[in-house]
Amino acid sequence: MKPLKIVIVGLGLIGGSMAKALKQNTSHQVLGMDQDEDALLDACSCGAIDGKAGRDDLKTADLVYLCVYPEGALAFAREYGPLLKAGSVLTDACGVKEELCAAMAALPGQYTFVAGHPMAGKERSGFAASDPSIFVGASYILVDTGAPDWAMVLVRERAEEMGFGRVVRTTPARHDQMIAFTSQLPHALACAYVMSPRCPEHQGFSAGSYRDVSRVANINDALWSRLFLDNQKALTQELDQLIANLSRLRDAVDRRDQEELRSLLRTAAQIKRQVG
Length: 276
Fold this sequence. Notes:
The chain is built from eleven helices and eight strands. Helix content is 51%, strand content 14%. The chain has an eight-stranded mixed sheet, with helices on both faces. The chain is α/β, with parallel strands linked by helices. α5 links the parallel β5 and β6.
């Protein structure tokens, strides 16, 4: 296929990494938009983008990635969606889908919207942290919202060009429930864990277990508080389940009930061995 004209809105960790991956691996024209002029300059200087995108570029773009917060994605679609040409695809990289997809469906425009979610990241944020290697072998989620197959294929093929190893299709509701479990719940758990008064004293007493559980507590509070609240229902259900499981362990320890404790630990070990 001929090279595409791609605009990436938001050159933070994910948007910057996408730009770098596309420039390294393809011949597509990649342009950027960001409120941070320094991020745009840095992206241009290192060759991550071919230049800054303006309104005229949006009118001729084949594919536009919204690598911003959910409210930012909606604001962009409201303001600039009418500029996009027929046959263009607008896609996002947001971590919540049910409310976003419903709101996107109500907006006018000639473009086709494809909901997407790259399952990659790191503790640091911003363009300076962007790294295309975070996509290699990772999963890319495509969310079914009625987009035609050709549009889904367009986004899937770009994901594969960026290095993603697996493309998963799902519904908005299942996406949000699973992301609450696999992503948001571990972040909540890590934050709760490091708020122990023992945490400042861990040096000399900690090894891999502390590191593994606490890693994602180095969190972007602005982003993750928004993601938690945007996925309130699903995350609350997962937190309730976690609290119930912890309570069973706590009660068995409190009662010195070794038989119950071994049963709980054995069940957890079996589940982990089975599912990885």
